[in-house]
Amino acid sequence: EDQVTQSPEALRLQEGESSSLNCSYTVSGLRGLFWYRQDPGKGPEFLFTLYSAGEEKEKERLKATLTKKESFLHITAPKPEDSATYLCAVMGGSNYQLIWGAGTKLIIKP
Amino acid sequence: SQTIHQWPATLVQPVGSPLSLECTVEGTSNPNLYWYRQAAGRGLQLLFYSVGIGQISSEVPQNLSASRPQDRQFILSSKKLLLSDSGFYLCAWSTGDTQYFGPGTRLTVL
């Protein structure tokens, strides 16, 4: 069964304290792995798509990496405005629908 | 550039009343359209998706229905709302693998 698990459920960091969020997945034939950011009461905002193991993408303080079993979202020197819930989703090769994780709530304290 | 609109932003409805949520996309043609529901602390649940006018696929049996009367318009409806229909409803569009989300509608059924 296709499945996505995100950890931790919540993460509290001090401003400037770097860390990583994890997205573990099981899927038949990965077509793509997607990262989104969601602010309270708003729709998810697209961040990255990763297609193959070893691929990395960066945007400002965020870097996403992909292996055959998991993806990491690394956040370097975060600021309070990085506080949000980060969602991970995968698309399998046999089904074009997205399988979603429950998200990691990131809180950055000034 | 492409934009997606959803309305209303919030809605409070009594049990047994009808529902109509609307989603429109601008700046693209023949998009795939999706309706999701998001419960607190859970991943997004796909309700319906459409690959063209009049073409609707349902992912879960439920009290809701969807229609696509125009290329860039997607409507979520119910004849009689249940308490369990409360949640955050999201519309999304895609023309490739990546889905882009609207701002969402917060529905409370009392």
Quick summary:
The complex is a heterodimer of chains A (110) and B (110). Helix content of chain A is 0%, strand content 60%. By secondary structure, chain A is an all-beta fold.
Q: Which keywords apply here?
A:
heterodimer; A: 110 residues; mainly beta; Immunoglobulin-like; 0% helix; B: mainly beta; 7-stranded mixed β-sheet; 4-stranded antiparallel β-sheet
Strand-residue fraction of chain A? over 45%
CATH class of chain A: Mainly Beta
Major sheet description of chain A: 6 strands, mixed
Please name the CATH topology of chain B.
Immunoglobulin-like
Give the count of structural domains of chain A: 1
What is the rounded Rg of chain B? 13 Å
The overall strand count of chain B is 11
Q: What count of structural domains of chain B?
A: 1
Quickly give the structural class of chain A: mainly beta
Distance between the termini of chain A: 41 Å
Which architecture of chain A does the CATH hierarchy give at level 2?
Answer: Sandwich
Which term fits the overall shape of chain A? globular
Strands of chain A, total number: 11
Structural class of chain B: mainly beta
Could you tell me which chain pair has the largest interface and how many residues each side has? A-B, 24 and 19 residues
Per DSSP, what share of the residues of chain B sits in E-state strands of 2 or more residues? over 45%
Explain what this protein looks like in three dimensions.
The complex is a heterodimer of chains A (110) and B (110). Chain A has a single domain (3-105), classed as Immunoglobulins (Immunoglobulin-like, Sandwich). Chain A is built from no helices and 11 strands. Chain A has strands at residues 3-7, 10-14, 19-26, 30-38, 45-50, 56-59, 62-66, 70-75, 84-92, 98-100, 104-109. With 110 residues, chain A is mainly β. In chain A, strands 2, 4, 5, 9, 10 and 11 form a 6-stranded mixed beta sheet that branches. A 5-stranded antiparallel beta sheet of chain A has the order 1-3-8-7-6, with no helix packed on it. In chain A, a hairpin with a 2-residue loop joins strand 6 (56-59) and strand 7. Chain B is mainly beta and 110 residues long. Chain B has one domain: Immunoglobulin-like. Helix content of chain B is 0%, strand content 58%. Chain B is built from no helices and 11 strands. Chain B has strands spanning 3-7, 10-13, 19-26, 32-38, 44-52, 55-58, 65-70, 73-78, 87-94, 100-101, 105-109. In chain B, the strands form 2 sheets. In chain B, strands 2, 4, 5, 6, 9, 10 and 11 form a 7-stranded mixed beta sheet that branches. In chain B, a hairpin with a 5-residue loop joins strand 4 and strand 5. Chain A binds chain B through residues 4, 9, 31-32, 34, 36, 41-46, 49, 87, 89, 91, 96-103, and chain B through 6, 41-44, 46, 49, 59, 90, 92, 97-104, 106.
